[in-house]
């Protein structure tokens, strides 16, 4: 009986020695210990940025950017320099019933990605908006030098504008009007702030 068991175990071991096991991981998020010092600083910068956003601290958010930073999204289009910080100051000052959740997706020495969801009351209509945004960042010298946000402007317009947004929010005409209104609001904010 012992010989039978020994032969069975030996055969099993020999069979296993011919089996190759492979493991494939597709771009796992880096573990804290795997991040370079620069990447870790960029992660801390984004965590600080989003925590300030959760607390509606537009000033702290603005300080995360380089003086010549760029920002773009479907609502504001392309903003540069002072406009970027002022946009966050304006939005956080005017936010009603605001909450934010975020998740950092990837960070390295030069770039990062995040997903975040903002819930708030759109002040012009009193309607509730839940906006899902994907952000891509570029970093330099411990600051954000570029941020590009993507979200579904038609989905946003359906929530913020109601029936008008549902029926027409997908059209370039209405989307352009939304962008014009957003940049006009920012220009007015900047003008009033400088007085």
UniProtKB/TrEMBL annotation:
GO MF term (any one): isomerase activity
Signal sequence interval, chain numbering: 1-22
Domain SnoaL-like: from-to ranges: 47-146
This protein's UniProt keywords: Isomerase, Signal
Chain segments annotated as coiled-coil in the UniProt record: none
Entries under SUPFAM superfamilies matching the protein: NTF2-like (SSF54427)
InterPro entries recorded: NTF2-like_dom_sf, SnoaL-like
Domain of life: Bacteria
UniProt protein name: Ketosteroid isomerase-like protein
Organism expressing this protein natively: Agitococcus lubricus
Lineage, opening ranks: Bacteria, Pseudomonadati, Pseudomonadota, Gammaproteobacteria, Moraxellales
């Amino acid at each position: 009986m012992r010989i039978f068991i020994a032969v069975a175990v030996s055969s099993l071991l020999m069979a296993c020695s011919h089996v190759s096991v492979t493991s494939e991981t597709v771009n796992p998020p880096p573990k804290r210990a795997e991040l370079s010092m620069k990447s870790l600083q960029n992660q801390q910068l984004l965590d600080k940025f989003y925590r300030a956003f959760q607390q509606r601290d537009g000033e702290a958010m603005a300080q995360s950017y380089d003086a010549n930073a760029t920002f773009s999204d479907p609502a504001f289009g392309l903003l540069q320099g002072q406009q970027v910080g002022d946009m966050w100051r304006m939005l956080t000052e005017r936010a009603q019933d605001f909450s934010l959740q975020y998740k950092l997706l990837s960070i390295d020495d030069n770039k990062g990605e995040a997903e975040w969801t903002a819930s708030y009351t759109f002040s012009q209509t009193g309607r509730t908006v839940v906006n899902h945004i994907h952000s891509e960042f570029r970093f330099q010298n411990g600051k954000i030098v570029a941020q590009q946000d993507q979200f579904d402007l038609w989905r946003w317009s359906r929530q913020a504008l109601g029936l008008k947004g549902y029926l027409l929010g997908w059209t370039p005409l209405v989307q352009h009007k939304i962008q014009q209104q957003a940049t006009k609001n920012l220009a007015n904010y900047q003008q009033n702030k400088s007085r």
